[in-house]
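Input chain follows. Return structure tokens only.
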Amino acid sequence: MMESNEEKLQRLEFYQEILLTVMNNAYPFYALIINNELSKSEVEDIYLLCTKLNNELKKQKEEGFVTFLPLLTHFVGMLNYKLEPHETIDALYEQNIYRDLMAELKKIIRNP
């Protein structure tokens, strides 16, 4: 008996649920992407934002800056509206993506 398109879709959705459960622990940022239904271009925009801010962080550290609140403000202001900033920072940090930048942003959030 051939499987209907509806049955295939239900099976794929079930597999996706299982994968998301696994990913939440090992790959929290990727899980956020899927849970919030971000497109490839939206994710690329996040990586571009993080690259820009990461470069700015390095530059500011070299220049002797000790506070990076403007970087957090920029991140929050430019982050995709589908994502919650604190959750996104934690997920990127936990998944070791732009970890130095996310560590600095986490410090600012903890000690405003």
